[in-house]
Amino acid sequence: MDAKIIYEVSEDDLKSFVLKTLIDQEVEKELNKYYNVFIDAKTLARFHNVSAITVSRYAKDGLIHPEPRNSNKEPMRFRLSEALKFDFAKLKIQRKTLTNKK
Predict the structure, then answer these.
(1) CATH 1.10.1660 given to domain 13-22+30-101
(2) How far is CA 8 from CA 11, 12, 20, 25, 78, in A?
(3) Per-residue pLDDT for the chain (102 aa), expressed as one digit of tens each?
(4) All structural domains of the chain with their residue ranges
């Protein structure tokens, strides 16, 4: 048996949702222009006002994802299109949650 969920929303809420969706799509489109631009961990740290050690720890914990490397001796690189989306305040909370579970 298939179930259908029907939501009742006001016209203003629907307009707000559609507008937010359109804005999100435009932002994503703009960010994708930087897909082939790479930055190192130090640049990422400066941009987000965190230390390079924080960037390394978050990458090690799997909270952020650098591009694949051939060896650990190669510096970490991040796609600028992804790096611009990082929210280190939220990542800090996620890391605390991870470390509390250990």
Answers:
(1) yes
(2) 10, 12, 18, 24, 42
(3) 788 888 888 999 989 989 999 998 999 999 999 999 999 999 999 999 999 999 999 999 999 999 999 988 899 999 999 999 999 999 999 998 887 776
(4) 13-22+30-101
